[in-house]
Design a protein that fits this description.
Strand content: 25-35%
Oligomer: single chain
Radius of gyration: 21 Å
Shape: globular
Bound molecules: adenosine monophosphate, magnesium ion
Number of helices: 9
Order of helices and strands: HEEHHEHHHEEHEEEEEEEEEEHHEEEE
Distance between the termini: 66 Å
CATH topology: T-fold
Largest sheet: 9 strands, mixed
Low-confidence stretches: 1-22
Mean pLDDT: 93
CATH superfamily: ApbE-like domains
Strand order of the largest sheet: 1-2-6-7-10-15-16-17-19
CATH architecture: Roll
Helix content: 25-40%
CATH class: Alpha Beta
Length: 332
Amino acid sequence: MIKKIAILSAAVFTALALYACAPGEHTSDFFAMDTYMSVKTYGVDAAETVKGEAERLESLFSVTDDVSEIGILNANGRVEASDETIELIERALYISGMTDGALDITVYPAVRAWGFTTGEYAVPSPEKIEELRSLIDCTKVTVDGNTVSVPDGYMVDLGAVAKGYLGDRVRDILKNAGITSAIADLGGSIVTVGGKPDGSPWRVAIRDPNGDGSVGVIEVKDKCVVTSGGYERYFTDENGVKRWHIIDPATAEPADAGLLSATVVGEDGVLCDGLSTALFVMGAEKAEAMWRKEGGFEMILVTKTGDVLVTDGIIDSFSLSEGSPYELKVIG
Ligand code: AMP
Ligand code: MG
């Protein structure tokens, strides 16, 4: 009887904690996975749960944490991983195949050598670049049951897909908590549940890679909007060239395919995140060819030459910022 009362009061307490502020707006900002995140929900305050989920995934995937599953893999060349890590690795390998190797989770030696993990930025010597190139090839990652292994010197980095995975998890958590209206910005990976409480779509600004403003706004409901951009983490080398954290696996150098940012809009967070990184590496022409061949996603590409290329599936939901110096072009 006492046990029953205890369980009942725990349930009532949890319900009160979750619904105390209904039907109001709850917003929260926090730092996780090495980036700023924010969550806005209506009815139920889920910020702590989202933050907890980000921290839980960080403890599995972080490259800088020696005891994360990826940390152990990179130190030992082998790890017994959780089902979630296996799932994310396998999905990233699939997207790598789909993008002709533009997404490659074995870029970590290069990411590290360029200083993007430590903040000690440096252009590696030509000899070092050559060595780094020989260490990038995700077809060498083997998954056998829950055992992942890589050859000597190889290292894995799930940074290009982890925030998309978090987005998918967050969407499920929010929906399971009965939330029908929410938006979370998980460091460039935005996930929406439903639309705004009044039924209108969420308005997501696409940042101007050349400034503080935005190039435009995309209206979405129940979608992920994930952007990869050179402006996120970069340094300027001695020749005045911006060197950013997205690496072209073919060269082991920062990708330079004519884009300043690549945004992918779709339903699946991991796919959107993996593709946004890959499209940035591929450039507009290859990105367009892949969009035609594969489908299942929409994109917004900001080019170095001042164009904003938007696929026709979302063109009616996209508006260029007023007075924008960019030219809007439709891919269709
Ligand atoms: P994102 O912000 O999703 O584009 O991911 C960028 C992060 O993914 C970088 O900070 C690196 O850790 C990693 N990364 C960089 N280039 C690549 C690449 N070509 N394929 C896979 N991961 C990459
Ligand atoms: Mg990505």
